[in-house]
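#structure-requests
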Amino acid sequence: MVEDEDEGSDDPNLEVHLKAFRAQWMSELKVSSGASEMSNRLMRAQGRKKTQEVAQEEKATELFLRAVEEEQNGAVYEAIKFYRMAMQIVPDIEFKINYSRPPDADQDGRNYMQDNDGDSEIEDLLSYLEQELTLESSFPKICIPEVDKTDVHISALPREVLMYIFRWVVSSNLDMRALEQLSLVCRGFYICARDPGLWHSACVRVWGRNGTKLPPFKSWRDMFLQRPRVRFDGVYISKTSYIRQGEQSLDAFYRPWHNVEYYRYLRFFPDGQVIMMTTPEDPLTIVPYLNHHNSRMDSALFGHFRLSQETDNQTKVFAVCKKREEKVTEIPRNRFYRQNQTPEAEHTFHVGLHLSSGGVHRFNKLAWFHHSCHITYKQTGETVVTAFDLKRKYTPFHFVRVKSYTAFCEQPL
């Protein structure tokens, strides 16, 4: 009976239960194996990421230390390049660095520089500074105050107002030297000082219609600096000296010799006017009187000049000068009054000069090639031309800068 009960316990559903159990067990094994494989992948990915972060941090540390060394040596632009590279790799490298420099850091930094040829040199400083200001803020300012103040900082002014201030710095005297000095203040001022509109206005002021075409120059600033022109921030001076024999003494025992010295002065103005003067007075006495157009010196000649670019690639300066006519004041006639006689002839001097550069300075020499006097008689209208011999007593003019000529200005550029 027992055997029959055991044989009867052979339930066909048992096989079904076993198959279900095996299937569940296999599925659990697959899930556990998949989870372990996924965890292994995550671990390997994290390991690779950590290795990359360590490598990047090491590279950024080397570049940051290199930048610190360059800054200490005074190479600011080189330091900026290394700082940028380090912060592009690890933005907060400044707080992670321990300033312990490995011995081969310099070599690694050089290798990184060689791999990044695009940042090896700052080819265009203007573009570089504009990019720096753009990267710092979406609304970049011309400059940022170093110390917080309650007063309104110049950086709060609109760009148009700043450019108008810069035009006052250049002024009608075309003081481009002051503009270059102003560009050294900060990055924003450097960008404003390189504004093409400023330099274009200066070129038009110097050459007129001949200064409206840019080629073959790269920029308007390049034209102003490279193209021959007369300078307005000083005076051209020519010193002449010679020995003249004096009269013989009454006893015929000796004959004196005199050393004669005199100066010629030429002062050019941006509006095309010129002052010419010949006098024995030294420059310390005469130069202050040539500061304005309306000089009251009796020996001064006033006129206009123009520049001419000849086919032989030589720049010539032509000037026409004459004495300024004085206004005669009406005085009541009486028996003690004698009326001054009006001049019967008018003297006009025509001057031609070659413009060249001498020594380390540019456009600082004017050599004579023509000088004549046109005498016009008022009664007949006849004009007589007398040309002077330039072989003797006509030494070249040399430019001397005078700071007081650009110290004050009357109107902007």
